[in-house]
Design brief:
The complex is a heterodimer of chains A (about 300) and B (about 240). By secondary structure, chain A is α/β, with parallel strands linked by helices. Chain A has 2 domains: about 220 residues, Rossmann fold (3-Layer(aba) Sandwich), CATH 3.40.50; about 70 residues, 2-Layer Sandwich (Alpha-Beta Plaits). Helices cover about 35% and strands about 30% of the residues of chain A. Chain A has a 6-stranded mixed sheet, with helices on both faces. A 4-stranded antiparallel sheet of chain A has the order 2-1-4-5, with helices on one face. In chain A, helix 4 runs antiparallel to helix 5. Chain A starts with a strand and ends with a helix. In chain B, about 80% of the residues lie in helices and about 0% in strands. Chain B has 12 helices and no strands. In chain B, helix 3 packs antiparallel against helix 6, helix 8 packs across helix 9 and helix 11 packs antiparallel against helix 12. The radius of gyration of chain B is 19 Å and the shape is globular. The chains are: A alpha/beta (about 300), B mainly alpha (about 240). Chains A and B meet through helix 2 and helix 3 of A and helix 1 and helix 5 of B.
């Protein structure tokens, strides 16, 4: 559906996108993840025909962005970063304007606007000026204008920046719902957002794709050693040594007293091994009371940090 | 074309949704009317020549003021990105905005026809000269606006757009006033390039295709530059 091949983009002498290639299948929700300035927005702007590639090719449903850009733009709904909108227009006039600019058949128009307004929850603010709306509503208007022509492809550049937690959840739910019927590219540097909404993640750093897969695949391939932290009530002084000798424990990272007889210990397990059962049995043997045991898994966040950290 | 008109309609409305249109029309009519009425009885002839020269002078400032925000504001707000990722061509965008501003100024200028009624009740104004004068004004507005929209596409700062437009327009306006300082060959080039030289031809009531072509080619030239400027964003 979208195919990007050997895409390169220079801004003057600065290299923004460095030989990026990927394919996006119909119906996937792709999270385009990367730190600020990694080249996400640039790539997206090339797909939406706002910028032209320095070299390489981009095709959307077999239409090339350079030679057939009007056809590409017809198929895409795009919400740029920060949802730039005309602040002096009211919501419904704005949506009608976008619709006219997209030259849709007129009998459908009224119905489409109704659907979009309902979907994006804009019913209460239809006749308000966009300038008077809160950031959350503006973001929704931006989403509505991207949906007004019922595109197959939706490209959203950081749609939840500047929203409060409730609004973020609303927008994410909406994206997930739209993802059932549309192909979506979601640019973000917020990991939970991508984890919550996407079924494929592309991590981009310094203009290059550094990881590509489903969130679960990425987690599996970057799985490190499991970390376990426990809180115990224990009288035996040597408990710390016992646990270090336990089968499957790589090393004890820290151990600090929290109070009388109360101890917090952090340990790292041998790769691919779950030592929780052994720990429990040890506690039983040493008559220690296990108050808390936590296993920390490598999250997408760790992978992201590992991949995008600047090498010093 | 539907898209050009949709954009023009939106731009035109936004002039009236903000104070811009009202301020422009009111100030324009006030200054024109005041200057015209003070000189009317001095000149003691039933024609609109003084009005035309006043209007030409006011336009020097008014046109850049009307056109300065057309594209620069879109750049500043970032809305240009949404506009240019819609399935429209750059020339459609430029033309739509240009037509909206053009319509606003034409309406403003035609409102000065009220002075024609005054004159007509006092004497017998020359209909051909009046028609020619208005046609000339409308063509001049076209040129000035094309310069204004071009400078507006250069920067996201409205003030910069205003000043650069004013400088270019003022240079074109001055050309035939400094002609006497130049030797023969240059003088005729300057004269040909000057806005007022061609206006004076048309305002006599003589509509010559050479004058019309002069205005239209300037308009086309600056609109073309505007489209090129917009397209250049892709390759920067």
């Amino acid at each position: 559906m979208i195919s990007v091949r050997n895409l390169v983009k220079y801004y003057g002498p600065t290299l923004a996108v460095n030989n990026v290639s990927f394919e996006i299948e119909k119906g996937t929700v792709v999270g385009f993840l990367g730190p600020n300035g990694a080249g996400k927005s640039t790539t997206v702007r090339i797909i939406t025909c706002y910028l032209s590639p320095t070299s390489g090719s981009v095709q959307v449903e077999n239409h090339d962005v350079l030679t057939d850009s009007l056809e590409v733009r017809k198929r895409i709904g795009y919400l740029p970063e920060n949802a730039p909108l005309y602040l002096d227009m009211n919501v419904v006039d704005y949506l009608k304007f976008v619709q006219k600019m997209r030259v849709q058949e007129s009998s459908e128009n009224g119905r489409r606007i109704k659907i979009v307004v309902e979907r994006c929850g804009l019913g209460d603010v239809l006749h308000k000026n966009i300038g008077e709306l809160s950031k959350g509503y503006r973001q929704r208007v931006g989403l509505a204008q991207a949906l007004v022509h019922n595109p197959d492809i939706l490209i959203l550049d950081e749609p939840t920046v500047g929203l409060d937690p409730n609004q973020i959840i609303e927008i994410r739910d909406l994206i997930r719902e739209l993802g059932r019927e549309k192909t979506i590219i979601l640019c973000s540097h917020i990991l939970p957002e991508v984890e919550a909404t996407c079924n494929r993640v592309l991590i981009i750093n310094e203009g290059k794709i550094v990881a590509d897969g489903t969130p679960a695949e990425l987690q599996a391939s970057f799985e490190g050693k499991t970390r376990i932290s426990i809180q115990i009530k224990v009288n035996v002084d040597s408990f710390r040594d016992h646990i270090a000798q336990l089968n499957g424990i790589d090393r004890v990272l820290s151990s600090r007293p929290l109070g009388e007889n109360l101890l917090e210990i952090e340990i790292e397990a041998v790769k691919g091994f779950d030592p929780r059962e052994n720990i429990f049995n040890l506690c039983k043997a040493d008559n220690a009371v296990l108050l808390e045991m936590k296993r920390e898994e490598t999250s997408l966040e760790d992978i992201f940090r590992k991949l995008t950290r600047k090498e010093e | 074309m539907q898209q050009v008109l949709a954009l023009a309609r939106k731009e035109f409305r936004s002039y009236f949704d903000s104070p811009v249109a009202y301020v422009v029309i009111t100030l324009f009519l006030l200054i024109a009317g005041w200057q015209f009425s003070t000189s009317l009885f001095l000149s003691n002839s039933p024609d609109l020549r003084t009005l035309f020269s006043i209007v030409r002078f006011i336009l020097l400032f008014f046109i850049p003021a009307v056109s300065m925000r057309l594209i620069s504001e879109e750049k500043r707000l970032g809305t240009i990105e949404l506009l240019l990722t819609l399935p429209i061509k750059e020339w459609q965008l430029v033309l739509g905005k240009y037509l909206a501003a053009y319509l606003l100024i034409i309406i403003t200028i035609l409102l000065t026809l009220i002075h024609y009624i005054t004159i007509a009740s006092l004497g017998q104004p020359d209909l051909g000269a009046t028609f020619g004068g208005y046609l000339g004004l409308i063509l001049i507005v076209g040129v000035y606006l094309s310069i204004g929209i071009f400078t507006s596409s250069l920067s996201q700062n409205q003030i910069v757009a205003f000043i650069v437009a004013f400088v270019i327009i003022f240079a074109l306006f001055l050309l035939d006033k400094v002609v006497m300082f130049f030797p023969g060959f240059l003088a005729s080039v300057f004269e040909y390039l000057s806005i007022d030289y061609h206006f004076n031809n048309i305002a006599r009531g003589v509509i010559d295709s050479r004058d019309i072509i002069y205005y239209l080619s300037l308009i086309f030239f600056f609109l073309f530059l505007t489209v090129q400027t917009l397209e250049s964003r892709k390759w920067k």
